[in-house]
Amino acid sequence: MNRQNGSMISEFVLLGLSSSWETTTFLMFTFSLLYLGIILGNLFIVFLIITDSSLQSPMYFLLANLSFIDVGLSTTTVPKMISDLFSEHKVISFQGCMTQLCFIHIVGGVEMVLLIAMAFDRYIAICKPLHYLNIMSPRRCVSFVALGWVVGVIHTMSQFLFVVNLPFCGSNKVDSFYCDFPRIIKLACGDGIKFEFVVAANSGFMSMGTFFLLLLSYVFIVFTVWKRSSGDLSKALVTLSAHITVVVLFFTPCMFLYVWPFPTSSTDKYLFILDFAITPVLNPVIYTLRNKDMKIAIKRMVTQLYEFTKNS
User: Fold this and answer.
1) Contact 147, 125 (CB under 8 A)
2) Could you say which DSSP state residue 8 is in?
3) Which CA distances in Å does 86 have to 14, 83, 278?
4) Which of 28, 37, 123, 151 would bridge 85 by S-S if both were Cys, CB 3.0 to 4.6 A apart?
5) Upper half-sphere CA count for residue 260 (Cβ side, 13 Å)
6) CA 300 distance to own-chain centroid
7) Cβ-contact 94, 188 below 8 angstroms
8) Residues in Cβ contact with 105 at an 8 Å cutoff, skipping those fewer than 6 apart
9) Which run of H or E residues covers position 266?
10) pTM check: above 0.85
11) What local confidence, expressed as pLDDT, does residue 244 receive?
12) Bridging pattern class, strands 11-14 and 91-93
């Protein structure tokens, strides 16, 4: 069982969400439906944006990437959580745990950059509509996505390189349904305060900074629209409300856990259900039911499918 760095732990035990049979059955059913909705809903958005010529704009390119990222973020945790609900022994290997937390933070970093890019896109569309296509060029949109992956990798590796070399020789029980830096650091031998500070300085600062940057950008957009024409204010608020909803749902758990990276209760893990299951399944609803172009594209696709079925 010995590994490099002297660690004696080869696997972690995930305590999960509940030990009650009734609650476990309810959670299994609920999360299975949520994950199915996440896969079908987000992949449908990606497919619709790729195939519909009227959706070939910067905003929908970013939205397709956000939907793809949501699928990836959920897939890193939800299938494992569902399978563990069936299992009496909820274990994950050391390598599997390190891989999971890496993917969570890489994909989470990409999503933060995409949300900033989408806020910038809305600012240009609302405040500088005549220059929109020049500023939000295809090259710039691809650059946003590439930057997201670079930021995600750097953000993750700057923490992972500390954690992977920690000596784990005590308890291997993780009071959660997934692996993450704060709870894994607590299991390390010796003084982990300086490593928890690294998490707070990295993930905490990134979450807080991105959240307040996005809020400031929305306030600036609303103020600009109000100053230019108060009649357009309600339209701008309707456009931004979907983005604000996604931002609040996504960042609330992040700030709650990473700004104070010393989990003292088991309630933290329930908050991250928002990030891994609730927000990804709501995004397709938020961005389709409140978007006229998306609703028109869906109706067009349904009509084409009906005509194809009728003719065949």
Assistant:
1) no
2) -
3) 13, 5, 21
4) 28
5) 7
6) 30
7) no
8) 152, 155, 156, 159, 160, 181, 203
9) none
10) yes
11) 84
12) antiparallel
